[in-house]
Amino acid sequence: MTGKQKLGVIGGAFALLCAGAVASPTLAQSSLAMLDSLDKGEWQLRFRDGSPARKVCVRSGRELIQLRHSASGCNRFVVEDGRNEVTVQYTCPGDGYGRTNVRKEGPALVQIDSQGIVGGRPFQFSAEARRIGSCQ
C-alpha cells in the first residue's frame, strides 16, 4: 500500500468515526448535571440585542438548550459537560440545527449563547437567564 493509499484509508476511517459520533446520540450521552443543578421555576431571558424578554418554565434545565427549536424530536450531541458550563449541538430533522452554550453563574443565573438555523433562516443570540419565581 502506498503512502497516499494509507492516508486515504485512515481519512475514510476517521470520516466514518466522525459520522457515527454525530449520527448516534448514544455515543454523546452525558449527564449534563450542571443543568440539573439549576433552580426549577420560571426564568426570564434578557437578550443582549434588545429583543423583548421571554419567560421559560425550567423543569430540568434542558429547556435552555433549544430555545429557538421547540420540536421534541431533535438529536443532541454534548460537546462540553462541565461543572459550570455545557455546550450542546443539536439537529432537528426538517427544521434546522443549533449549538448552545450555557454558563452557570449561580443556581438562578446563567449566560446563554446560541446560534444555528431554524426554518431555513440563521439565528444567533446571547442572553442572560435569571429565575424569577414559580412557573405559572
| Count of strand segments | 7
- Shape-level CATH architecture of the largest domain: Beta Barrel
Distance between the termini: 67 Å
Q: How would you classify the helix and strand content by structural class? A: alpha+beta
Whole-number tally of structural domains? 2
| Helical amount | 10-25%
CATH C-level label of the largest domain: Mainly Beta
SSE string: HHEEEEEEE
Q: Give the rounded overall mean pLDDT.
A: 84
Instruction: Calculate Rg over CA atoms.
Output: 18 Å
Envelope shape: globular
Keywords: Signal
Signal peptide: 1-28
Protein name: DUF3617 family protein
Organism: Qipengyuania nanhaisediminis
Can you offer a commentary on this structure?
The protein is of the alpha+beta class. It is 18% helix and 45% strand. It folds into two domains: 1-29; 31-133, Staphostatins (Beta Barrel). It has helices spanning 3-23, 33-36; strands spanning 41-47, 54-58, 75-81, 85-92, 96-106, 109-118, 121-133. The chain has a seven-stranded antiparallel beta sheet with strand order 2-1-7-6-5-4-3. It is globular and about 35 Å long. Residues 1-28 form the signal peptide.
Keywords:
globular; Staphostatins; 136 residues; 45% strand; signal; alpha+beta; 2 domains
Question: What's the structural blueprint in terms of helices and strands?
Answer:
Elements lengths: L2 H21 L9 H4 L4 E7 L6 E5 L16 E7 L3 E8 L3 E11 L2 E10 L2 E13 L3
Antiparallel strand pairs: 1-2, 1-7, 3-4, 4-5, 5-6, 6-7
Organism: Qipengyuania nanhaisediminis
Protein name: DUF3617 family protein
Keywords: Signal
